[in-house]
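TA notes. Do not distribute before section.
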Amino acid sequence: MFKSIDETDKFSYTDCVISDIEKAEDGLIFNVEALIVKENNSQNSNFTESFAGPAKIKFVDSKLKDIVKVGFKYYNADSVLIKEVPDEPVVKVEWESLLKTIPGNYLPGIEKNENTYICEVEMSEEDGTQGNSYLLSIEATSVIVTWDKYLNRVSR
């Protein structure tokens, strides 16, 4: 088993999909697929970007602090702003139901800001088009990513 501790910046989340979210006693766990291990990750002895097999991203001693629905801007073909929708905080009573809809959607990034991790989630509509995006702020003491095997090297 491979175990990467506090190296969220040493993964690429380009194609990463959340398959499930678990709540453990000591943290929140994202089960993911198509996570790319960068060549500079301490657990990558291949020294080239490679896909990890199914992986677990565990936010240790974590607490979900905030969820924000990401705003957007609409422009016409002449680059004239038509409509702007600002970011919108999701009320806490809706967090649980929103978390249940996340599996099957993309996790395009995790950024660390001191002891808070900002997880971007891109939702898809039933017809396959892109839906809303959300930013989950998770306070945690560390992040541990584990996986059992490497799959193919990334070809770009």
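Switch to the second chain here.
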Amino acid sequence: MRGQRWISRLPWGGVMLALLVGVTTRDCILVASAAMLAVYTARTQVDNREAVDLLRSAIQCWVVGGASIVIAIALVAMVAAMHAGLWDGNGLDTSSMLLTLGLSVLAVGVPAVADVTASHRRRTVARYVTVGTLIVWVAFVARSLDASGPCLFALGISAITSLWGWQLAHTVGRELARSTARA
């Protein structure tokens, strides 16, 4: 029981690692990656959590979806602050950034891999490996571009999180609420 609690908190530890190192070193790629990992973790927990009732599940979808959209807006504001000269977006060297990002991605993915024996988790693991690999690869490519690379990375993450949030809140949440009304 104690091990299950620890492993269920591990994804949020990975998110906090990327966020705290990103904010401390003023690295916008780590901050944007932390946002993406947070949305991924919250969405995975909503998808895998056993629903107590349909209305509660709809409310969870709306909350996570709304938070995803707020995160997307915050990332756009961060990019605007960088262009206004309030924030330097490349405060950490590439190897340290990739190491921190890799550790964060691993911390988020360990619970998904730990439960691989369940048949419905195989898709979760495959989705996680794809998302995690893409985040690290795109972060490396964005860092190797000119000064606008980190901004493009953050804006891309913003677009993805807003789409995920809209889909979760509008499509899934609405269908669950409709099912509640029919029941």
